[in-house]
Amino acid sequence: MKFGVIIFPGSNCDHDTHNVVAEIAHQPVTYLWHDSDDLKGVDAVLVPGGFAYGDYLRTGAIARFSPVMQSVKKFADGGGLVLGICNGFQILTEAGLLPGALMRNAGLKYICKQVHLRVETTETAFTNTLKKGEVLKIPIGHAEGNYYCTTEELKRLEAEGRIAFRYSTPSGEITAEANPNGSLANIAGVLNEKKNVLGMMPHPDRSSEPLLGSADGWRIFESMIAALATK
Amino acid sequence: MRAHDHPANNDKIGHEKMNMRRRLTRSEDHPMQTSTPEPVSITAELLAQHSVTPEEYERILAALGRTPSLTELGIYSVMWSEHCSYKSSRVHLKRLPTRSERVVQGPGENAGIIDVGDGWACAFKIESHNHPSYIEPHQGAATGVGGILRDIFTMGARPLAVMDSLRFGPIDPGSELAKSDPATLAHNHRIVEGVVDGIASYGNCFGVPNLGGETKFESCYSGNPLVNAFALGLVKKDEIFYAKAAGVGNPVIYVGAKTGRDGIHGATMASEEFKEGSEQKRPNVQVGDPFMEKLLLEACLEAMKTGAIVGIQDMGAAGLTCSTCEMGARGCVGLDVELDNVPQRETGMSAYEIMLSESQERMLLVAEKGREGEVLGVFAKWGLDAVIVGTVCPEPRLRIRHHGVLVADIPNTSLTDDAPLYRRPVGTWKAPVPPEPPADVLAELDRPRDYTADLKKLLASSNICSKRWVHEQYDSMVQTNTVQGPGGEAGVMRIKGSGAPGHERGLVMALDGNSRWAYLDPKLGAMHAVAEAARKVACTGATPVAATNCLNFGNPEKPEIMAQLSAAIDGISEACTALGTPITGGNVSLYNETKGEGIYPTPVLGIVGIIDDVTKAVPAGFQREGEAILLFYLPESGDDTRSFGSSEYAKTLLGRLWGKPPQLNLSEESNLHRALAAVIDKGLITSACDISDGGVAVSAAEATFSHGIGGRLALQSQESTATGALLVLFGEEASQVIVTCKVENVFAVIDLAETFGNVCVAEIGRTGGDRLEITLNGNPVIDATINELTKPWAASLSAALHDEVPA
After folding, report:
1. Tell me, what CATH number does A31's domain have?
2. So what's the pLDDT on residue B783?
3. Domain of A68?
4. Which residues of B touch A106 (CB under 8 A)?
5. Closest partner residue to B291 among A54, A203, A205, by Cβ?
6. ipTM above 0.90, yes or no
7. Model confidence over B751-766: pLDDT tens digits?
8. At B714, is the pLDDT very low, low, confident or very high (cuts 50, 70, 90)?
9. Cα–chain-centroid distance for residue B611?
């Protein structure tokens, strides 16, 4: 199975994400350049964090028009696995691959710290090795992670099991204090209808080795590898 | 910037003259005619506008053998500014130790470089951006980060981490200033918010982790905040690039952002005191674009891989002027540049403006003739301007043409090595405060008091309280190398691809300065800055190996300021020699005065250390319940009432200042560092925390915070007086570290550590519970729950800035 990591001008977690796949998962991985629509035959696309196109205009607003994203849309429509992390999540919502939008943090400031996430569904290619209700420690680093969608959309997301993670306390309670950025219903990650596209603000790429303070993020990559292996 | 916002106030007349001259040259319409640049009519006023003294002007005449053109006068004025030439400090800086087996590149390049082993080298440097950060806090601080990052990647190194040393005026609503001058307090708030936001926005977007540093508050920084940025990068030892032009006929290539009218005379501004109305110098402050810098980083590193780049330098202070003459001077060649080819953001820019612009995110490089296409191709891929603007010529001169007309023709070295060098009068340093505590203070010290209440007040004070409000705005984790981030003793990063897999080598960095101590004794204070920064590095288990310094002082034309500077350099020299940390570069920022009021002398030291196996690095706080708490100390130390006058306690709780900083024994300090490295390498200890501001009580309290694990400490004092208790609990004696280890390892730790010189180890307590309890000679003196202590410490800064931080 082959992974592809997109590089937009301004991506700054491209190397980090590549490193997890190459050095920890020991899987084949290649970079995908924003200006090319060639996905090089990859089995999963990783849209990394950073500030694509400087986040000018609005986060992800310019990146959605890049040639590579046109191919990613087709890839996702065909059932291909797409994981967007942080800026990658923002880009996926702008591109219409995921519902909702990411607004400025409620505190209006960039926040970088470890947070806790409660796993809300395990029936996806990204969470199949996790347990429902399990709590993961994964850091965030963003200024625009305040998830929003309409009430109808939220109902659908909940009904269809498309909320992947919610911000929680270390023991798994969903409280206002545990919500770092004001996200609606503490949403930290959502899935598309077919559940082959996941966007999440926290960084599994920054929490895949115990040396860095947590290896919980690795479990998401592990799930993807397991899903691809049975495909 | 809008065109009508310009020009920088201090050269309005110059611009008018220049515009007239340009019209004349155009109407003459024969481009290559002049053999020498057209002279400008020199007036005392014009020289004063350029901060060029009559004596310096004589030197310009001698160097050129003729009257300079206006562009040439501008070039001399920036290159000979204090900021670029170090004319007041150079004679003293020569005393700093700069060599060791590890030093690959000492002072004189964009950054210093040390060998870290396994074929890797580390480029690092500290830079100040004080003046711009006062005038426009957000952009001033942001471009400070941008500038130091370019210094690192110019050497071929990918920036791995940054740290900042920040100093501001008081922000505490309970402070004296809040009552006497609320407007200044409010201004200080805006500066703090702007500086932190500026650093965050630039570094976060660029993608370099910020590992913290220090944030301090003193009244003297109200009109003159200090923003010192320390950056560190990694490069393969055989892939280092230098800022040296070579190869006659090679093309000179300009890359990056277009040149605009921003930052003109920034270097000159940074070389003056602030007066009333200095805020109007805002147009002198550059505007940063971190996205552009990120592209520039990736493109430069990729272009370097082609092997077609001969030399490269960033355009920082004094922009195109500095990069062209310095690259030529280092290579003993000249650069011949046509300004028409320089990408410009605005129309109608004069040669003077293009040469002096400090627009950000620009680089100048020399490529191999015939291979320029490879270099230009890489920049095109990243969507950046890259244009051939000139060629390398054999004569060691800087030749600048505009519209084909020669506008500057200057011998390179007259701008660099032969710039003025001043042996400014060095006054005799006099202690600013009485050495002994006044009688009323002595009486106050001997009054029994509630030590727990005092501890809470200290924990809430702006210098000691948690700086989480600052650090959480910085991305401290990008690049996935951060093993220890902000809030601990030092920043610890692993070097991917070094050492054994899973046991990579680590780089450790720390920043420290104590300006109140430097004010009380510039030499001893500077020595403490080196020792404490190195101690912080040593507390993680790393060996401190090199240093960079940022010397922030007042007006060097005052003999008493030169006395401070000279003494501080002596102190740094002595300490860096003793601790084995040569200075590989740094920065001097003078004229830090507002309305004649100088800052405290503020030497800030950045220390880099190496740990062979990063998994062995220990953190600062208590890690597990039921462990032994040990104190590493030196026998002859022992605080007295004299040095207590320099403590945070004296400042915060008594509002007084007297005496001197604590004594420091450098050779024993070095033994302490070696002892720490040894016990950590053997895996004998679980945490180490330096005792500094607020003494052992504050350090012990902070050690309980990281995991909420309490501790019981039994301390001893020879004097059973109230004064004696204060000195033990809150005195800031040097060379002391609180260490924890498993109970069964206590003897092994003591046995090993005490083999290093006179280092002593005492067992002083046990970790565990949810309280901090300290007894002195058996009597309880401090007793509080961790919760009670955390609250004032954690909330104080955001509360002072009226900003609620969600949990």
Report:
1. 3.40.50.880
2. 98
3. 3-229
4. 806
5. A54
6. yes
7. 999 999 999 999 999 9
8. very high
9. 23
